[in-house]
Amino acid sequence: MNPLYLLQINNGSEIMLVVVKYMFVLAGFLYLLYAILVTKQVSIMSKTVETTNSTQNKVLAFVHLVIAILILIYYLLVL
What is the crossing angle of helices 54-78 and 12-48, to 10°? Predict the structure, then answer.
């Protein structure tokens, strides 16, 4: 996206569209941060309390992290 794009806006609806796009990208970054924290928390929990599902929990947390990364990439490329 051209950094001067904001200067080329003609009407209010285009301004709202740009604001919504940036809000989606910000939400993607926050969701990625949340996924990183969940993955870290699951890792710490698995070290503290051993259960039969520890490996499954780690895999699920990692899949969640990968999906969060893919969502952010999608937002950055499409929006």
Answer: 160
